[in-house]
Specification:
single chain; about 725 residues; alpha+beta; Beta-galactosidase, Chain A, domain 5; TIM Barrel; Immunoglobulin-like; 10-stranded antiparallel β-sheet; 13 helices; 36 strands; binds (2R,3S,4R,5S)-2-(hydroxymethyl)piperidine-3,4,5-triol
């Protein structure tokens, strides 16, 4: 019945566009944004509008003529046409011709979860090449997701050298790009620049730990630099766990085209007849200010993109920074008891539990041999899950199944499964190499690692899936002469493995980790409940890293652990910084004083109590660490009855002028009680407003004196609407 209704609805939608004139205009809209495409007289498809939603249908028809005649606004411009700027698609055909001109064939729409999908078919008029452009518009969240599909029926394979996900155009007086770049332990650092004539490219060539130097997302201020509350801004992100490339090109007329794509670097792709080449999804939102844009993406992610986006998350204690590779059963059981004592939900066993012929006692050996190390764990993982159960915590496990150390039994048995040169010296990143996931046999092996662990230990409640190396020595024995396909087919192979894990073990949450935040994209996050933002857990650095990632990801997707990095910051400060995201710990309670342990317990219980506000509420970035010696963020529950304000004083100057923090997102007419929480035992709040009641209007216009001149000082303030 459901299927029947859906079919009828689709037919209606197609018929709606059935009139000769109407057929020429395709409107993709959310509640706030319109993307309007039009077929021009030459039969090709052009973008005529992308911006704030148009109120009058009649205006859309007027747009058409002007827009469609502007050269260079072709929606999926092919190489070798009259457009002199960067194309979306480039194909070398069997006869050596490298031009592709795409003509509109048809389009249709159908409802999908949360939105409306539009598919537009196009075809080259000289070669049997088809392109389908897909768009899903999510009205409520004001997000559009788009990707493309290329197929051909030429006799022999064609060579693809460009394969964009989409192409978007803007015409503004100026464009201001914000990128999120960095390195290991320095992820998502924001920097801005004005785009001038020519191209700015943001790309990565790292293959597997692809986002180590730059994250797959950006902001563009349209007309003026993007700010939190004002200005038109485009925020976009590509779902691809491999090499990506964003091209921003300002042309001779001052128009900007944005091309999100897989990076074609070393990837001229040999495409067989009738095999669709599906590009990654690019999701974007247009908003007034970056704050609104982030909230759009957060809500969209929780509703449709992030694994278990609407479920709760587990707090945890990890052993990595506490023990590194040096542990045994007894030590681990002791840590499980500490986890219980702290009040967290789970104990997470990190690297070092496997390998026998080549024991994993450091990072030089053992990757690939996923059997419990007999010296450390004579009774196996099973005894640990049992112990965890008895103690009353869940048990999670670290794996890095895509990797191999040359010192491993796996490498001895299957050197042909490993990406490396047959004729050159190997070079290593962290003493390891990457398994060749373009090879289905290797996909089976990697899936088998997880499958075996879960079959033998059904009580494993969580995986931390790590990926510490970029692809080095880029050569696949499996692909033979088709090496141009390796970077891409490797990532697709990874997705195949993840799909199988998801299908067979849908209820196992997983953390996406890549030596810190080297993987952070919305395709991977279909399979992972959260990602590890950075190995850098110095709370000062984390303030910047989390600020950066929060532009695109909800707090629910971002793991933050309290560790011993930067001991000059108090345990309270470190914990308060981690409490803004998905809270965890990676230290031993023996490192803490009695009061600090009591504080952590309190912070865990407060976090659990307020989890739904922090992880599911609306986030408002209030004070930027890039602009002040402070930082503040508040979260507001959907019903506006609860809010939490996090305020940090980083390194304020002596007697610096302080300003009040104006909250956002509250109901102006509700009265809120203000209470400082997360106080160290034996201390009380010196916040003047503590315990008092204010209207939402007051709190948003006058604000709270939540900032201070004390260095590395923090406050967590709970606001509760009064009946
Ligand atoms: C890198 C991760 O980011 C760390 O948290 C830890 O799991 C190590 N790998 C283990 O090798």
């Amino acid at each position: 019945m459901k299927h029947f209704i859906l079919t009828v609805l689709c037919m209606l939608l197609v018929t709606f566009r059935g009139g000769a004139e109407e057929q020429q205009i395709i409107r993709i809209s959310t509640d706030k944004t319109d993307l309007i495409l039009q077929v021009a007289d030459n039969g090709r498809l052009y973008q005529t509008y992308l911006g704030e939603k148009l109120l009058h249908e009649a205006d859309i028809k007027k747009l058409a003529n002007g827009g469609a005649s502007q050269q260079g606004w072709e929606v999926y411009s092919g190489s070798g046409n009259e457009d002199y700027f960067e194309p979306a698609v480039a194909i070398t055909h069997n006869d050596g011709n490298s031009s592709t001109w795409l003509y509109y064939v048809s389009s249709s729409s159908h409802p999908v979860k949360g939105g409306m999908q539009t598919d537009i078919k196009m075809r080259d008029n000289r070669y049997p090449v088809d392109v389908v452009l897909h768009y899903v518009a999510y009205p409520k969240e004001n997000v559009i997701k788009t990707w493309s599909e290329i197929t051909h029926q030429e006799k022999k394979p064609v060579l693809l050298s460009r394969y964009a996900s989409t192409m978007l155009y803007f015409s503004c007086p100026a464009y201001y790009l914000t990128e999120f770049s960095g390195d290991w332990a320095k992820e998502a650092q924001m920097s801005n620049q004005q785009l001038q004539f020519g191209k700015k490219i943001i790309d990565t060539k790292l293959g597997s730990r692809a986002a180590m130097h730059v994250s797959p997302f950006f902001l563009v201020g349209l007309g003026e630099p993007a700010s939190e509350k004002e200005g038109d801004v485009l925020m976009g992100t590509l779902g691809w766990t491999g090499n990506f490339r964003f091209t921003f090109e300002v042309d001779n007329l001052g128009n900007l085209r944005i091309i999100p794509a897989i990076n074609p670097y070393a990837s001229s792709y040999k495409l067989e007849k009738n095999v669709p080449f599906v590009t990654p999804e690019f999701a974007f939102t247009l908003s007034k200010g970056t704050g609104e844009g982030s909230r759009n993406l957060h809500e969209w992610a929780r509703n449709y993109q992030l694994k278990d986006g609407n479920s709760s998350r587990m707090t945890l204690l990890n052993n990595w920074e506490n023990t590194y590779f040096d542990f045994d059963q007894e030590k681990l059981i002791g840590l499980m008891k500490e986890a219980k004592d702290l009040g967290v939900d789970m104990f997470l066993l990190d690297d070092g539990w496997f390998g026998n012929k080549y024991p994993r006692n450091n990072d030089q050996a053992g990757l690939g041999d996923w059997d419990e190390n007999q010296a450390k764990l004579p009774d196996g993982i099973a005894s640990l899950t049992k112990a965890a159960d008895e103690i009353g915590v869940k048990f999670g496990l670290w794996i890095e199944p895509e990797m191999v150390n040359p010192k491993s039994e796996l490498f001895e048995k299957h050197p042909e499964w490993v990406i490396h040169y047959p004729n050159r010296e190997a070079y290593y990143f962290r003493n390891q190499l990457v398994l060749d996931l373009s090879n289905p046999e290797v996909q089976d092996y990697v899936y088998g690692v997880i499958d075996k662990l879960l079959k033998e230990n059904p009580d494993i409640a969580y995986f931390k899936w790590d990926c510490n190396s970029p692809i080095t020595n880029i050569y696949s024995m499996y692909l033979e002469e088709n090496q141009g396909n390796l970077y891409i087919d490797h990532v697709r192979g990874l997705y195949r493995v993840l799909q199988r894990v998801q299908e067979n073990y849908p209820d196992v949450p997983m953390m996406l980790c890549s030596g810190g935040g080297g993987r952070c994209d919305y395709e991977a996050l279909k399979y992972f409940t959260e990602f590890w933002c950075s190995d850098n857990t110095d709370p000062v650095e984390r303030i910047f890293i989390q600020w950066g990632f929060s532009h695109i990801f909800p707090a629910k997707a971002m793991c933050a652990h309290v560790t011993n990095w930067n001991r000059s910051a108090s345990v309270k400060f470190r914990t308060d910084v981690a409490s803004m995201c998905k809270l965890g710990f990676d230290l031993g309670l023996k490192d803490l004083t009695k009061d600090e342990t009591a504080y952590c317990r309190l912070a865990v219980s407060n976090w659990k109590r307020l989890q739904s506000v922090i992880l599911d509420g609306e986030q408002y970035r209030l004070v930027s660490p890039y602009e002040a010696n402070h930082m503040a963020v508040n979260y507001v529950s959907k019903d506006q009855r609860k809010a939490v304000l996090f305020a940090y004083d980083i390194y304020p100057r002596y007697q610096e002028k302080l300003f009040s923090v104006k909250l956002q997102g509250l109901d102006p007419d509700k009265l809120y009680k203000v209470e400082e929480i997360n106080l160290m035992p034996g201390t009380s709040s010196d916040l003047r407003a503590n315990g008092k009641v204010f209207s939402g209007d007051y709190l948003m216009k006058v604000g709270l004196d939540a900032l201070d001149c004390r260095q590395l000082h923090s406050r967590v303030i709970e606001l509760t609407a009064q009946e």
